[in-house]
Design brief:
The protein is of the alpha+beta class. It folds into two domains: 32 residues, no CATH class; 85 residues, Jelly Rolls, CATH 2.60.120.10. It is built from three helices and six strands; from the N terminus they run H-H-E-E-E-E-E-H-E. Strands 1, 2, 3, 4, 5 and 6 form a six-stranded antiparallel beta sheet that branches. Helix 1 crosses helix 2.
């Protein structure tokens, strides 16, 4: 199952057969994880470095939000977040965090059950 998921993920990234060495193929297969999450679950918290990975949404919907800031870039007293985007099946999340190795700029919260490859 993991090898099939790695192969599908590779296709989604536009990597054709033969572009990766055998060692790279094995490394990708070992690092791919298929996960399911429940409605309301927060998968990644803003400013977190714990889940530095690329997510590919297989099913469900993910709300991508960010805390509100004032003109001085200070986080407001209220815990309100602004929804910036919703990711549906076929959507990728986590690209910026993976590329920069910085803490997440966003919170990913499940709107309904989700299956994803990470």
């Amino acid at each position: 199952m993991r090898t099939d998921a790695a192969s599908a993920f590779k296709d989604l990234l536009g990597l054709s057969h033969g572009e990766l060495s055998r060692e790279e193929e094995e490394s990708l297969a070992a690092s791919v994880e298929i996960a399911g999450y429940q409605e309301g679950e927060v998968v990644v918290h803003e400013e977190s470095v714990e889940r530095n990975c690329l997510f590919y949404v297989l099913s469900g919907c993910v709300s991508v939000s960010q805390r509100s800031t004032d003109a001085d870039q200070q986080v407001r007293d209220s815990p309100d977040c602004v929804e910036m985007h919703k990711a549906y099946p076929g959507g990728f999340l986590g690209q910026l965090q993976v590329l920069t190795s910085e803490p997440s700029f966003f919170t990913y919260k499940l709107v309904d059950f989700i299956g994803c490859v990470q």
